[in-house]
Amino acid sequence: MWSFVFQLNRLVGLALALSVSACATAPQQAATPPTGPKVMVAAANPHAVEAGLNVLRQGGSAVDAAVAVQAALSLVEPQSSGLGGGAFLTYYDARTRKVTAFNGRETAPAGATPELFLDEAGKPLPFRDAVISGRATGTPGAVAMLAMAQSAHGKLAWNQLFGDAERLADQGFVVSPRLAGMIASPFPQVATPDAKAYFTKPDGEKYKAGDVLKNPAYAATVRRIAAEGPKAILEGSIAEAIVAKVAEGPRPGTLSLTDLKTYRPKTGPAVCRPYRIHVVCVPAPPSSGAALLEALGILEHTDIASRGPADPQAWYLFAQASRLMYADRDRYFGDADFVEMPVAGLLDPAYVAERAKLIGETAGPAPAPGKPRGAGVRAPDATLEPAGTSHFVVVDAAGNVVSMTTTVESIFGTGRMVGGFFLNNQLTDFSFSPANPDKTPAANAVAPGKRPRSSMAPTVVLDRQGRFVAAIGSPGGNSILAYNLKALVGVLDWKMPIQAAFDLPNLIARGDSYASEPAKYAPGVVEALAAKGVKFTGFGGEGSGLHGVVRTPQGLEGAADPRREGVAKGF
Predict the structure, then answer these.
(1) Exposure pattern of 520-545 as b/e (b: 16+ CB <10 Å)?
(2) Which of 27, 32, 281, 312 has the most CB atoms around its CB within 10 Å?
């Protein structure tokens, strides 16, 4: 697979014009030392941000803080991520200027078959049935992935990183409005016995915003993880409880103790690609980050950078590049350990240029996937990919950066709980239909040990000298790519402050659908887009939850999506 890691000694030979341009515009080039924050945490809940900052105050690294942030999020934002889920982490090492990706994506059990989500008649199961089934849970990978990253890049002892999460679980935390809304929602997971028991007070009422919720079982679990590492949930009594819970009906799964014990996270170079004067880095497949790079490459062939958010043509170009990106992503992406992934072909400059030529004056029918070099024959995908995900960014005092997207898949995963945390329903990210009627396989079909495709794409941006510029990411199911792309265009092309870029309207253009937030556009934009064939048909799935950090001459600047409850704080 084509990928590379940026290092200073590998940048010899870049065009002088690019180097000069980068030096002139990169936000790090301040004449005086920055006076603003030197460390920063941006995450979806203030408790998680404080947990990360407390680790940084103790001299911890970005990865140390990430462990604390995830442990807190699992408790206070259980609808989105957790110890029973998976994650991707993109890491920037300030000393070496390397960008590394960590893959904690869940794996299908050894007993899984391509027909996992077909009913007795061979038809795809209704999602409401699949999501709460035992079949939906894959081997959780987030904790093992964080342990791998922390062993390589941590400064504090592992057992020092869970204090805030343990305290919040023991003493209780105030239920936020967003969590309360999820508890009161009609999602099928909320009606499971475990979720009902957890979210119901002794008086029989459901927890509401402002109530204090305690989770002593979670406190006990994080104490064990602090003492034992990922073995605490992948082996022993918690692992046995996970297997037993997955084996319960309806539609029990086959996850075994062997599946848990043999799980291994992965690490390797990030996939990086130049974008104008910058370099953008994302995880390799099964993350869909490379599709994001393709979209940027398409936009590089347009004049979107000379326009701005009040210009209808800018949004038109954004929408058409998005459609081309999704057409390719939906057809070709899967687990590269199981299917040939045409990443090099998708990112080949000649291929990207040809895709960009398909952007006409007005919007036409949904674009077909292209035929990049290395692409096999793949069936149209039938992945539903709902969303229950979170993103956070940490920058430490040495300038190291974590950009991490983490998930239990749908809201509260399967709604099944073990040890105070929810189990993921991540296997529903596979294509429910494994093949076409002619037996052409889907790239994202189920297979034993396979990791399902993910839209998660935690992103790190560098200048052409390999210095940190920005880190961003978002939850949102298959809309993640559109949310990340919007933020990158706002920050890199339109030179907006990161908060202003996050505040921009979301536009998810995929196939024949254009979902957006029409009230957020400048006057006249919506009407002008409609005249070009871009007509909004709804909002489209889960809202964004962008979190990010940029480096400016004054210091670090963080932002949190106003559509959620996150904050960005530093010192």
Answers:
(1) ebeeebbebbeebbbebeeebebbbb
(2) 281
Tokens of 385: 């990919």
Per-residue pLDDT tens digits for 384-421: 555 579 999 999 999 999 999 999 998 999 999 999 99
Q: Check residue 290 and give its pLDDT.
A: 98
Beta bridge partners of 98: 93
Preceding omega of 186 cis (within 30 degrees of 0) = no
389 is an active site residue:
yes
Length of the chain: 571
279-314 pLDDT, tens digit each: 999 999 999 999 999 999 999 999 999 999 999 999
Q: Report domain extents, the chain.
A: 1-288+387-480+552-571
pLDDT, residue 538, reads: 76
User: Is there a contact between 75 and 64 (Cβ–Cβ < 8 Å)?
Assistant: no
Q: What pTM value is reported for the model?
A: 0.93
Instruction: Tell me how far the alpha carbon of residue 283 is from its chain's centroid.
Output: 10
- At 101, give phi and psi (nearest 5°): -115, 135
Given the residues 389, 406, 407, 414, the one annotated as active site? 389
